[in-house]
């Protein structure tokens, strides 16, 4: 998902469309506005931004189509693990949505290769090492 704090942008620029090339190359599909998935993700994201959500313009939301063999394998692995957890935990796999804050370049790398610790964290080790996810229901108003 790419977003902009420039609320006066009337239409996506050619540079913006170029930004999405690596997304499309890696099996991402753009969700159309007024699509149910698009609207749910947009509402959840803006809600999570709290009062800053009024200043944000979401320019696109993309979904992983899992069209590659590796993507299909990852999705199937997730389904198998989720089902095992559901059985182990009495019917509730306890799957939650979460947000991951990152730069566009890092997101493109994650889409291509998944989460990894191949590169040195930009902030050093002051925030720890690993993937830091934030609950989808958190917002700045708390």
Describe this structure in words.
InterPro entries: Poly(ADP-ribose)pol_cat_dom, RCD1/SRO1-5. The chain is α+β, with helices and mostly antiparallel strands. It has one domain (2-64, 96-135). Helices cover 38% and strands 12% of the residues. Strands 1-3 form a two-stranded antiparallel ribbon. Strands 2-4 form a two-stranded antiparallel sheet. Strands 5-6 form a two-stranded antiparallel ribbon.
The secondary structure category is alpha+beta
Distance between the termini: 24 Å
The helix fraction, in percent, is 25-40%
Count of separate DSSP helical elements: 5
Rg, alpha carbons: 17 Å
Task: Give the key terms.
Poly(ADP-ribose)pol_cat_dom; single chain; PARP catalytic domain-containing protein; globular; about 140 residues; about 40% helix; two-stranded antiparallel sheet; alpha+beta; 6 strands; disordered N terminus; RCD1/SRO1-5; 5 helices; two-stranded antiparallel ribbon; NAD+ poly-ADP-ribosyltransferase activity
SSE diagram, text form:
Blueprint: E1 2-4, H1 14-19, H2 21-25, E2 28-30, H3 36-48, E3 57-60, E4 62-64, H4 69-88, E5 98-99, H5 104-113, E6 134-135
Antiparallel strand pairs: 1-3, 2-4, 5-6
Quick structural overview:
This protein is of the alpha+beta class. The protein has helices spanning 14-19, 21-25, 36-48, 69-88, 104-113, and strands at 2-4, 28-30, 57-60, 62-64, 98-99, 134-135. Residues 1-10 have low confidence and may be disordered.
């Amino acid at each position: 998902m790419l977003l902009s704090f420039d609320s006066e942008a009337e239409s996506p620029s050619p540079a913006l469309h170029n930004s999405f090339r690596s997304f499309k190359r890696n099996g991402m599909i753009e969700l159309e506005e007024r699509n149910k998935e698009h609207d749910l993700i947009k509402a959840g994201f803006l809600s999570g931004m709290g009062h800053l959500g009024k200043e944000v313009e979401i320019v696109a939301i993309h979904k992983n189509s899992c069209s590659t063999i590796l993507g299909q394998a990852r999705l199937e692995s997730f389904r198998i693990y989720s089902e095992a957890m559901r059985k182990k935990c009495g019917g509730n796999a306890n799957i939650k949505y979460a947000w991951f804050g990152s730069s566009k370049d890092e997101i493109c790398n994650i889409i291509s290769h998944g989460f990894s610790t191949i590169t040195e964290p930009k902030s050093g080790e002051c925030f720890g090492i690993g993937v830091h996810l934030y609950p989808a229901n958190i917002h700045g108003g708390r």
